[in-house]
Amino acid sequence: MGLPPWTIDFHSEPQALPEEIDFAVVGGGFTGLAAAAWLRHSEPGKRVALFECSHIGAGSSGHTGGMALSETAAGSLPGLGDVLVGLSGILRELEVQCDLGLPGAWEIGRQGVMPNSPIAWNDSGTLGVTREVPGGTIDPGKMLSGLAQAASKRGALIFENAPVESLHFEESPVLTIRGKPVRARSALLATNAESLELSGLAGRAQPKLTMAIATEPLSPEQLSSLGLAQRKPFYTVDLPYLWGRVFHENRLIFGCGLVHVEDWRVLLTLNVAEGRAAKLLSDLERRVRDLHSALRGVRISHRWGGPILIAENWEPVFRRHAAHRNVIVLGAYSGHGVALSVYLGAWAAEAMLGKRDLPQWDDAVNAADGQKLLGGHYPTG
């Protein structure tokens, strides 16, 4: 999937698999790590284990652009609450330092541009700021490292290179890992765009890859001429789609485009230097250089793709598994997962502890869970 411009500073220690635990968390991204850390933070006496099939941050979370937005891709859903306030509080409680900044975010477009817009870019017309919304940015590498360290420090067991080979729905969920059964009182499946058969989302949500690039460091003068001196992230509200943000050392990250895959397993081996992904990256580079004279000769330092999962109406999936009520499925953020995944991961932990109900964003799907999800438009990187 290529390499983004940050590093993840966490590696789990080798340890024996437990035979029985209170809570199993499957998936070592933002959601799973936040849930594991919050479970032990809330109930230090409970046995918690997280299982990641590869390494921490190998999937969506390690390949995101790091934009923290206040709502889901479907907007503010009933009972959602203030995601950014919740994110800030969770990170503060868990003592996670990830360069969280919430200066707001810009919606940019080709119509309805605000007077005196700080942005005036050439992109199928003139792109400018249409309005400001709540939002900000994080360092994805630092957030993954910090959440993993918070979970480990509080006593959660973290197993990397530990794929769940099967999940049996007996009186309590039983996971088979490295050929050994691990019985859990309750489980959270936080694999997002991967392991869709395990989560029950195969054929019900669409896995895709979105593309991103990072530039070499820009000068303060270049950043100012681009209208990005305030370091606010941005995304277009019309097509062709584009999102971006300022990263460390005044690097700029831009992203757009989707590669559709029929089978989520393709995401594990997809080479961004070949095929459709390479074409989208090449088009994105050309488009970025044409945005403004300050970007005309800019060098691109990193190219990568990030998996996303899109479910019906762009709403995140947050419900009990159809086969067992003690298994929760959480994911399908449709590109809005940076803040939402941590916020909902902690919510899932509280639901597993019996302290909070799951949301009822789609009662029909929660009740039947057999209705086929159709997927939809990808609105906000």
Key structural traits:
381 residues; alpha/beta; FAD/NAD(P)-binding domain; 8-stranded mixed beta sheet; 9 helices; 24% helix; disordered C terminus
Description of the molecule:
By secondary structure, this protein is of the alpha/beta class. The protein has one domain (20-368): FAD/NAD(P)-binding domain (3-Layer(bba) Sandwich), CATH 3.50.50. Helix content is 24%, strand content 28%. It has 9 helices and 18 strands. It has helices at 30-42, 83-94, 140-153, 196-199, 220-225, 266-269, 275-291, 337-352, 363-368, and strands at residues 20-26, 48-51, 67-69, 105-109, 121-122, 126-133, 135-137, 157-159, 164-169, 173-177, 180-189, 206-215, 234-236, 243-247, 251-260, 300-310, 317-321, 324-331. A hairpin with a 6-residue loop joins strand 13 and strand 14. The longest helix is centred in the C-terminal third of the chain and has 17 residues, at 275-291. The chain starts with 19 loop residues before the first strand and ends in a 13-residue tail after the last helix. Residues 363-381 have low confidence and may be disordered.
Summarize the structure.
By secondary structure, the chain is α/β, with parallel strands linked by helices.
Outline the fold blueprint.
Blueprint: E1 20-26, H1 30-42, E2 48-51, E3 67-69, H2 83-94, E4 105-109, E5 121-122, E6 126-133, E7 135-137, H3 140-153, E8 157-159, E9 164-169, E10 173-177, E11 180-189, H4 196-199, E12 206-215, H5 220-225, E13 234-236, E14 243-247, E15 251-260, H6 266-269, H7 275-291, E16 300-310, E17 317-321, E18 324-331, H8 337-352, H9 363-368
Helix pairs in contact: 1-3, 1-8, 2-8
